[in-house]
## 1
Amino acid sequence: MHEVKYWKAFNEAVREEMRRDPSVIYMAEDARGAVGGPFALAKGLEDEFGSDRVFDTPDSEAGFVGVAIGAALTGLRPIVDISFSDFLLVAMDQIVNQMAKIRYMTGENFTKLPIVIHTMAGAGMRAAAQHSQSLESWFAGVPGLKLVAPSNGYDLKGIMKSAIRDDDPVIVWLHKAMLRTKVQLPDEEYLIPIGKGQIKKEGKDVTVVGISNMVNVALSVAAKLENEGISVEVLDPISLSPLDKELIVASVRKTGRLVTIHEAPKPCALGAEIAALVLEECYDYLEAPVRRVAGAFTPVPYSPVLEDAYLPNAARLESAVREILKQ
C-alpha cells in the first residue's frame, strides 16, 4: 500500500495505462512541461512518454475534442483534459452530435470510439459561476456516452483505468474539492467496472444516494446518526450512465425510504431520475415520499457566504433524513 493525494491517483492511472498500451495519448492545455495542466494532473507525463504522446492543446475545446475524435477513429486512445466542466459546453456539438453518435451513423465502418474526457466539476472553491457547475445530468441523457463520477481517490484510479480501456466514449467527472484528499492505494493493479455502483455503508432505515463528493457528505451524516440508532445505507453509483439500477432498487426495497443528494440544482438532475426509477420499481415498498437535497436553482455565487448557502451540506441532508423517518 502507498498513500497518495486524489490528483496523484489519477496520474498513476494514466501512467499505468500509457505504459501498458502505446496507443494511449494525452491532450490538455499546458500538459507539457513542469506544470502538467491547470490541476497538475499530467505532471511528469511528457518526461516519461515524450511529446509524441503528450500534447499541448490550443484554447479551443471544440477544436481539440474534434481532433481527439479523429484520433480515436484512426486507432488511438486519446485522453482529453477539459479543465473545468463548464467548458464542455464549448465542445457540445463535438461531444453530443459527433462523439456520441458516430458509431451509430456509420454502420460497421467504425465500431469503436475509445476516447476519455475528464473534467473538474463542483463548487465550494470560490471559482464563480462559470467555473463551478455540476453539469453531469446534461450528459447523462445522451445515448452513446458513458459517465462516471468517483467519490474518492481509490475509485478514481480504478474507474479511470477502466475508462481508458473501454471502447466507448467515457466522460470522467472529478471534483475540485477532493484534489488534495489522501487515499491508500494498493501497489498491485486493480480495476473498478463501469456500470456498477457500491454500498459505501450498509443500513436498514433509509437509503441515501450521493453523487460525487456528496457521497462523502452522506457518509459523515450516516456516521453521526449511527450514534443515535439511526441506520443509514449510503450508495455511491460511481457510474452515472449506465446507472446501476439494480443496486438502488434492492436498497430501497430493503429500507423503504430514499434521499438523494447532489450539487447540481434540483430540477431535471440525477436525483429526479433516481427518484423516478424508485417510484417505478419500488412504489409498494416506500414508507415515505422521496426526498431530494440539491444545489440552489441559481448560478453558483462568487461570494463565499452565498456559495456556502448554495451548496447542499451535511445539515440539510441530516434534516432530510430525520424528516423522512418521521413519516
## 2
Amino acid sequence: MPTKPKLGQNFLHDPQAIQRIVAALGDCAREIVIEIGPGRGAVTRALAAQAAHVLAIELDDNLATGLRAEFPADRVTVVHQDVLDFDFAAASAKVGNRLAVVGNLPYYITSPILLKLAASHAALDRAILMMQREVADRVAAEPGSRDYGLLSVTLQMYGPVEKLLALPPGAFSPPPQVHSTVIRWRFAPHFSSLGIDDEISFLSFVRQAFAQKRKTLANNLRAAGIAPADITNALGSAGLDPQVRAEALSLEFLAALWKTLHDRPNQKD
C-alpha cells in the first residue's frame, strides 16, 4: 500500500524496537491502550497480544480499512479520526480508568499532539511516543541546556519525561530524513506541588518568559508589560541574577517567580 507523504507516514518495521516499545509500556494486561497512528499495524500486533484492548486512531482511510480487516473487533477498535479531534476524556470515562498511550507521531504535527495529550492529562497515565530526535531532545531537556525552552517546561509541568530508545532512519519504511527517539512520559502534573493554583496564568507567564530566547528573562517580562520594579523585586526575592535567562531556570524557580508576580498588587494576567 503506497504511503501518503502529506500525512508524514514512516512505518516502524524493526521487530526489536517494536518489542522494546511495548515493553516500555509495562504491564497493560488489564488496560485499554490508545495507539496514535497505527499505520500498517506493526506495533498494533504486539500491543494486541499484551493489552486488554487497543483503541487505534488512524487518519488514513485506507489504512483504517486494512486494520479493521486484520484485527478482530474484540481485540482492536479502529477509530478513523484525526487524533487532534479525539476525546481522551470521554474514552477514559467510558472505561473508568486512566489510559495508556503509544504512538509514532507524524513529524509535521508532533507538537500539537503533545499539547493535546498535555491538555488531556487527567485521562492519561503514561505515554510511549516516537518522534523526531530533535523534538525529543527539547521535550526532555534539563534547565541550562541548549534545548531547554518553552516546550520543555510546558510538557514537563504535566509529568516527567525520559528518553528511552534511539531509532535510525532504517528502522522505518520508507526511511525518513531524520533520526527518531522514543520517550516515556508519565502524567503527574506539578502544578499543585509547586503551589500553582492557576494553570492558565502560569503557562501564559512561561510563554512570556521564553518569548525571545536570546533576551534576558527581565527583558522578556518587560516586553510583556510587567513593571520593571516588580521584575527586579521578584528576581531578588528568588536570589537570581538580574541578567538570568529563562532557559537557566528550573520548574521550581519559574513557579516561585510566577507566584511573586501573580500575587503583586494590580497584577496583570
## 3
Amino acid sequence: MKVNLQAENALEWLAIKLNLAPRPLIDTQVSFSTARAIMVAAELGIFEAIGTQTKTADEIAQICQIHPQGTSHLLNCLVGVGYLQWRCAKYSLKRTYQKWLLNGSEANLIGKLRFQLLEWEWMTKLEGYVRSGSPLEVHSTMSKQEWELYQKGMRDLSFNAAKELARKIPVPKGAVSMLDIGGSHGLYSIELCMRHPTLTSTILELPGAIESATVIARKYDKTGRVKHVAGNALTDNLGTNEYDLVLINNLSHHFTADQNRSLAIKVAHALKPGGVCAIGDMIRAERPGEGGVVASTFGLFFSLTSSSGSWSVSEMQSWQKAAGLIPEKTVAAMTIPGWKMIIARRAL
C-alpha cells in the first residue's frame, strides 16, 4: 500500500509528468501538515462533534470548546484533504470515514490517532537516533497515562484484525489452553476463545500495561475464559508442555535477534506436542523496497522506539526452526497492510 502524489487538475498532471512538481515538499510539508490536522481533529473531538450531521464552524467550535477562527482553518484543511465536505457554510464528515472516526463504530481509530500525537514526539528524536544508534526504548519510560493511550491505540489497530485472524490461525483440534504473549487488550485471545469453546487464554503482559489492558479486555470478553498475568516473557519460565497455542503478536520488533531466538526456544518447550506457535508482526522485506511503503516506514519507526525493528519472514522462521519447530504457512492480514503471521508447529 502506497500514498501517491495525485494531480487535481490538468496543469498539476503535466507538472508531475515533467518532474516539475516539487515532490519532496509534497512528501514532507503537505504530508506532515495533513497528518497533524487529522490527529488534532481526533484529539479535540471534532469528528465526534460533527457526527453524521452537518454543522457550521461556530457550532463545532462551541461543542468542542475551542476557538472559532482556529476551528474554521482546521475544518477547511480537512475539506481540502478529503475528510470533510463543505456545503452552504456547513461541514459534514464523509461517509467513508464515519467507520473510522466516530466512537459509535467499534472499528474507529480515534484512540490510535490520539496516541499518534505521542508517537509524533518520538519521531522528532529520529535524527538523534540515526546519529547515535541509540533507540528510545519507549516501553521502559512510558507513564500510566501514556500506557492508557497506547493500549487504546493497540485496540484500534487490532479490532478488525483479531476477527480476521481468528478465522485463519490453525488452532489444534480440541485445544484447551493458549498463551498470548504481550496480548494487552486481549482482542486476539477473545476472538479465538469465541470461535473455540474449549479454549482458555492466559495473556502475559508487562506490569505497567496490565491495568489499562484489563479494562479494555473486560469490555469485550463475554467468554470468561481470558485472564491477564503480569510478567516478562524474556525472563519468566513459560512452563513445559502446557499450551496448545502460543501467540506472539506485534512483539518481535521490540526484541533483538538473540532475544527472539531465546523466546522461540522457551515457546517450543511450553507447547504441547502438535501445538502451534504464531508470530505476527509488520514484516521487513528480504530486500530493501520489496515490502512497500508501510513495511519500510514501520521498520524505521520500530528501530527508533525499540531494540531492533521489524524482521523478515525468513528471519522469523529461522528462530522457529532453531527451536525445533516446523514452519507451516504464512498468514497475511488484509486489515493490516504489511503485516503477516508466521506459523510453526511442534512435532507430535
## 4
Amino acid sequence: MKLATYESDGAAKVGAIDDAGSRIFDLGGAAKRAGVDASLFASMLNLIDADDAGLDVARTLLDRRGDEADLWSSLRGTTLLAPLPEPRQMRDGMSFATHIRQSGRGARAMQAMQVGGVGAFDRVMAEPLPELAAVYRKIPIYYITNRQTVVGPDTIVRWPRYSKVMDYELEIAAITKRTRANIRAADAGGHIFGYTILNDFSARDRQFLEMEGRLGPAKGKSFDGSNAMGPWIVTADELGDPETLNVEVRVNGETRATSDTSGMLFSFAEFIADAAQDETIRAGEVFGSGTVGNCCGLEIGRFLKGGDEVALHVDRIGVLRNTIVAQN
C-alpha cells in the first residue's frame, strides 16, 4: 500500500494512493462513513502507532469502500505534503561505498579549487578513487539530522544565504514502527513500517568548513527544506527488498545519474539494530540510507543553481521533485 499525507480544505489528511498513482483515497472520510475510529488516520504518526492493526483497517476500507467515487481525489489537483511531516527522530547514514569514496575525492577537489581554480578541481576529480576506510565496514556510520526541516514533494527549497554550493543527494529512507530498545538485526525488519525517497540537500561549502572542526554537519545540512521526503510511503510488504531498486537523478529533465541500491554496507535492519543498542527506537523515526552511489553533485563535480528542478526517481516508490531558489 502507498500512503500519503495531503492537504484538503486547509487540513492535513492521510490517504492511500491507487495502483496507477493518479488518485488518492480519503482514509479518514471512509472510516467515519464505516463507523470506524477515524483517529487512526488523523496523522501518519497515528497510523504508524496503530501498527499492523491500523494497516489492516486501511486495507479493509479500501476493499469495501474503494468503489465510492466521492472518497477519491485526483492527484493532479492535490497538494501532497511530506508523507511523515514530523518524524520523531531522523538519522542519516553512509551506506554506499561508491558514494563515500567519490564524495571524499569531491571534497578534496573543492579544497583544491579554492587555491588553484577550476583546473585544480578537474585534476583532483580525475585522480583514482581512494580505498574505502575500514571503519565503514566495522559499524554503521550516521548522524542525527534535523527532523523539523522536513518538506514534501514539489516544494520550493530556498537555499540558505550563507551557501553558494548547492547539492542534492538521493537516498532511500526507512520509517520505523513499534517502540523498543535492543532490537536484534534478525527482528529489525519487523520494525519497518515502510519506505520513501529522501533528498538530503547539502550546503557543501558550509559543510566542509564545519567539519574542519571535527563535528557536524550542522548548518551544512540543517536549514528550512533541507530534508525533502516523498512523494509517499510504500509499506514494507509492498516494496519488498530495498536493496533491489533502480534509481535516477534528473535536473531540469536531464539525467545526471543512474544507479541502484544494491550492496549497502549495512542493511536497514543492521542499521536499526545498531542504533537500538541501549537506546529506545520509537515508531515514526526515519533512517536515511545515505546517498546512493553517483547520486549527488559532489561525486560528479556538478552542482545546482537557482531555479533548478531536481527529480529523484526510485523504482517501486515514485518520483520526488523539488525546485531550488537562490536567496540574495
